[in-house]
Specification:
8 helices; 10% strand
């Protein structure tokens, strides 16, 4: 009988302890839930004002410690936006940023200033992505122009614009290389064209034309007291340009008043 009474007393003690523990746990849970509710209300207030960073800071105190669905939605909004907006070199992480923003709970649209910020960031990333795709197409276009010999047009198309700040460094380098290539080929082409034109002028530059140029230059005053003498042997300067030597005299005299070279492009170089 005594043993039964002892057993009953022991059970009562255990029940009492369990009740106390349960009371403590329930009280703790209740306190925690109240804290979460306070945090939720404060976070909503921040989001309604567009203060997303402040909302993240207040939510962080319970992040990962509660399974409250409303809390999780708010954390998704604040944390997701802050992760993307604070990312260094964001434009080099477009796919990651879009994925992060897509994970944001759709309830963000209920907080107007916050909705505007998130939607603007989404639009910005979309614009950057489109700009990069268009830039890659432009790279192909510039390369095509170079291949066809359209160097001047390629130079113009490859010039830097404000949109370059949205483009990856790799694509910028590619475009700059193409611009340099186009410029080098353009000046090489122009130099070649000038050389061909010079050769053509030299081939057509006869002693008769030299005399005509010289008389037009030296006798343009209309004075009939002067005469010109052109050496019929063509000469070539250090650059390979063809010229004839010209001397100007007073008629009836052998004294040289002036001496110069006359070139195929009608340029004059006086001789001392």
């Amino acid at each position: 009988m005594k043993e039964i009474q002892k057993l009953k007393r022991g059970n009562k003690i255990i029940i009492g302890i369990v009740a106390i523990v349960a009371f403590i746990v329930i009280g703790s849970i209740g306190k925690s839930n109240n804290e979460v509710k306070v945090i939720i209300n404060k976070a909503k207030e921040y989001l309604n004002n567009g203060e997303i960073s402040e909302a993240e800071n207040v939510l962080r105190a319970k992040a990962g410690e509660t399974n409250n669905r409303e809390f999780e939605k708010l954390w998704s909004i604040a944390y997701g936006y802050e992760q993307v907006s604070n990312k260094f070199n964001l434009y080099d992480n477009i796919d990651w940023a879009e994925e992060m923003l897509d994970k944001i709970d759709k309830s963000y649209k209920y907080y107007e200033p916050t909705r505007e910020k998130i939607d603007n960031l989404k639009e910005e990333l979309s614009d950057v992505k489109n700009t990069r795709e268009e830039f890659k197409e432009k790279i192909e276009e510039v390369q095509g122009l170079i291949d066809k010999g359209g160097y001047e047009e390629a130079m113009e198309l490859s010039k830097e614009t404000p949109d370059w700040q949205k483009v990856s460094q790799e694509d910028k380098n590619t475009m700059m290389d193409l611009e340099n290539q186009a410029r080098d080929l353009y000046y090489e082409q122009k130099t070649s064209e000038k050389e061909e034109e010079r050769k053509k002028q030299d081939e057509e530059f006869t002693v008769e034309k030299a005399i005509e140029y010289a008389e037009d230059y030296s006798l343009k005053t209309g004075l009939d007291t002067l005469r010109v003498k052109v050496d019929e042997t063509p000469q070539y300067d250090e650059e390979g340009r063809k010229f004839y030597n010209v001397e100007v005299y007073i008629k009836g005299s052998n004294e040289v008043l002036e001496a110069y070279r006359i070139y195929s492009n009608n340029k004059i170089k006086r001789l001392d």
